[in-house]
Amino acid sequence: MGKRGQGLVTATVFLVCVVASACAPNQATSDPAASGGLTIAVFTKNQTNPYFQSVRLGAESAARQAHVAVVHYVPTKPDSIPEQMSQIEDAITRRPSGVVFIPVDSKAMVPGVQRLNAARIPVVNIVDRSAGGEFVSFMACDEYGVALGTARYLLAKMNGRGSLVIIEGVGGSANNTERLRGFRAALADAPGVKVLASQPGNFQRLQALQVMENLLQSFPDVDAVLAANDAMALGAIEALESAGRHALVAGVNGTKEAVDAIKAGRLVASGQCDAYLQGCLGTMAAVRNARKQAVPREYAFPITILDRTNYTGADLPDGERSCPAWDALVKDIRE
Length: 335
What we know:
With 335 residues, the protein is an alpha/beta fold. It is built from 10 helices and 13 strands. It folds into 2 domains: 166 residues, Response regulator (Rossmann fold); 130 residues, Response regulator (Rossmann fold), CATH 3.40.50.
């Protein structure tokens, strides 16, 4: 992490699952003081989407490398606004050195971000852009770009003709809006493809499975499925397989589960927004800010459309990965 941080005493990472049924945020596995007094609070949306587990693992890897403490705040009910608001209040009471924040709702959580701002706790916003508040940095993928690339890939596999269904994420959420915009931009250039339906699966695998089951009953011929994340793509595949049907399916995020499905020939492609890397760099940015080191105001992660030709490396389990060096990715910082 640089020479300025090398004098700090090494500490075991401070791992806490902040869920009502599991453990409380003051149940530390190590003494945070041993980490030079730095503790980073990481807020993710839920425990059900593997994408956010990858974010958390990336954050933990970055914390180990930087010799700091990290505490996780995860709602027990997926994407719960009241729970995340309550967890923000808890974090304010405990006063971490910085916060890595993914809002469960980009608009509804603005007052929570403003509470952190008022408490003078620095916030790094990752994955989903908050609609308001002040941030040290915003670090994320280009949601429109990754969706556009994924959709274009799938449409090319369809040879520009056939029938398609879209499984959307959470209605009104910023990332869902941008991904749908990307899908529709690609479809505008494919007049031979008919969109049979576009329905929300709320970024959840089970809900997408149920949506797909219903769509298969309504439409006897579905050539392809475009899902706004991998969890929903895999839910759609389950529904197709259970019904003895086949369709080309593509998702977004590039999760380990999706890569495994690509290797098995079940999923055509996934637009990679590397969750592990976002957890890494978000935590690194929070640590660097706490140590008075420069961070970019905004950072866009590289985008890759993963398929059977280029998944090597992306199939490595997150538990076997480690964060890259900051300078390997962030080379040109503009304040």
